[in-house]
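To start, an entry.
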Amino acid sequence: MDILSQDIMYLTGVGPNRKEILSKELGVSTYRDLLEYYPYKYVDRTKIYLIPELVPDMPFVQIKGHILSFEEFEMGRRKKRVVAHFTDGHGICDLVWFNGTQYVYKNYIIGKEYVVFGKPGIFGGRFQFTHPDIDDASELQLNDMGMQPFYSTTEKMKKSGLTSRTIEKLTKTLIGKITTPLKETLPDFIIQRLHLISRDEAMRKIHYPKSIEDTQRAKVRLKFEELFYVQLNILRYASDHRRKFRGYDFKSVGAQFNWFYSHNLPFELTGAQKRVMKEIRADMGSGRQMNRLLQGDVGSGKTLVALMSMLIAIDNGYQACLMAPTEILAEQHLQTLKDFLKGMNINIELLTGIVKGKKRKEVLDGLINGSTNIVVGTHAIIEDKVQFNNLGLAVIDEQHRFGVAQRAKLWSKSSNPPHVLVMTATPIPRTLAMTIYGDLDVSVIDELPPGRKAIQTIHKYDNQTTSLYNGIRQQINMGRQVYIVFPLIKESEKMDLKNLEAGYEGLKEVFPEFHMSKIHGKMKDKEKEAEMRQFVEGQTQILVATTVIEVGVNVPNASVMVILDAQRFGLSQLHQLRGRVGRGAEQSYCILVTSHKLTNETRRRIDIMCETNDGFEIAEADLKLRGPGDLEGTQQSGIAFDLKIADIARDGQIVQMARNEAQKIIDDDPTCTKIEYNLLWNRLKELRKANIDWAAIS
């Protein structure tokens, strides 16, 4: 048995109780898990400071000296503060404890030499260290200490005495046990080409570095490895897919497309739209199946590009479908497409849960006999009962509702898999798109059509409600509509719903003259649809909602988006919500309401929103501020996003490097059978077994 598969319980210092806490809190149940639980920061323990050298706001430092005397201060009933006056011969500072006084007296002796480690603060004009780490100076060799690792721990762990220091000691014990070098997981040619250190060296240096350089080299090696296998998995899947499936070859651009282009185009295409159309045409005429992700902010004209792509399919004698995540959105798409196609002889139908009985049968028959050219619907389209005569292009709106498995269902609808165009208004930075949608090529529409007014974003504090309400009233009296969004965050769902209900009642009192709708995720789909419909049709002026409104629905008349407790939303979410207004020609506003108490990070978030409307800038910033964890649907895209050390936001260069290396291997060995790459294919198998369900995509 491999030593790393050993149960963590048997490591000296763990035992059954600690095992339970480690496995529950950190997911650490084997030696391997502990080895792969990496430190989040390091502190340089090679330097000793003199007390006169201390300055406020210093990070953790070390001083060396002895205790002169102890003093006690009463802190209320049965509570004491113990202060040790400490000197290094150059100055005096205090060491302070608020609990565990018995421990202090028992373990620390006046006059003995200690090394004290902690964060210096100032109290009463003197430097003090609260609850510092204290080591016997005679036992501590400074050069041994090197860079001290710090590990993340939870409250529960701290209560049971499992601190960062404890994990450090356990890891030390474990590394001492591993006497033979760890098995290499990357081939020599990659290690040499990229000047990486070995896996064994990286693992030892990541936990016990002697210098900053050690930590950096270890990190680069381990991050590269993690990202490389993610990329290799995606590219292997994409290459398999391309080999298995030929795509339809749409050579000609024919009568329907040309007619539409010359007669029905509502405005000149933007440069970005033309560029993307070119990419799509090249894909559809290459004989390979297209799998393309089309990113573009709300209102950038993705639907128009999708329609022109559908016309190419129709000109080549094929059908097209457009799938949307909700019924209301499908109906809106249908309307938009019908408006675009006015006067053209193209048969376009709707297929959602609402279409029943005779009408449904007509639509299904039209798809089978080929008389329907385009069908717009929800995921009802991928039900087994729905058969096409010859589906040539599938457009999917808002990808994160459709995983790879659903895309695969579409492929089975025709003898060859149709071309797939996936649209999203959620801008995803390139490094992330490469990782989440690695099986898709990415196109971006990064300019808005002319004549659109930029949305103005204003930050207000929650004590400025009078001016806020007056502004809302003014807009409604001009004939506009308003969204008011309450946060609904899973952790505090019950409270949030109460706040929404109370907020809704409060707003009714503030605006008795207006009609209001209300939507939240706990309502039945039917109820949501009905409330939304009232707002879309203009029967209600104010829509009070949680974030369920972020995807897609178009209300050109809505010109104000008020987001309450905006500090609780991520940037991308705020941007997504803001995109719900500004659909018409009028000036639109997004108002972010927060409390006065904001962390620096939150303030930065709010400032970014007020400064820019560019979705990609926002996505980059969001990724840097929050990391990729909030992206919906990453799990279902078949990539285990269980990255232990790499950070897609910050390690863009390493992502690119990993991608290039993985691509070279796939190009050289598309069928994954060459002996010289055996190490890689076997390692990939191991990871696929151990990780989240990677098999979902293959």
